Amino acid sequence: MINRHNSSIKKVLIGAVALLFIASFSSCSKNISFQNSTIVPAAEGNVTIKKDSNKNYAVKIKISNLAEVKRLQPSKNVYVVWMETDENLVKNIGQIKSDTGFISSKLKASFQTVTSFKPSKVFITAEDNQDAQYPGNLIVLTTKRF
After folding, report:
1. I want to staple 104 with a disulfide (CB 3.0 to 4.6 A). Which of 77, 98, 114, 115 is the partner?
2. Whether the predicted pLDDT of 140 surpasses 60
3. pLDDT digits over 24-38, tens only?
4. Which domain of life is it from (predicted)?
5. Domains located in the chain, CATH noted
């Protein structure tokens, strides 16, 4: 009888520890939706930001219905992802890649990177060059400040 009771207590404690472990990981990540775009109205997606054990930030982006960058007016060459930091710095953090080629037939794209800067806003612009130092005027998608 005592062994069964101890076994039940162990199961409950293991379950509680597992729940706390899962909750601690989910509370460290943010999932932010992009606002509706006036440049590419059908585009939608989200940004997930998760702080890791090294105090870096993993940034993951998933987008659907993103038009080919060459079809925009004016035509551009690449979609660039920008991050505004909590210190109001704006950084080029990379180029959008599609799931199968530059922009897939399903118009899905994704992006991921790790940064030491704490993000406060993420936005995507259409640019002539992937190495742009400053964002251009063609802001395709943006989040609110978070």
Report:
1. 98
2. yes
3. 444 468 999 999 999
4. Bacteria
5. 30-142 (2.60.40)
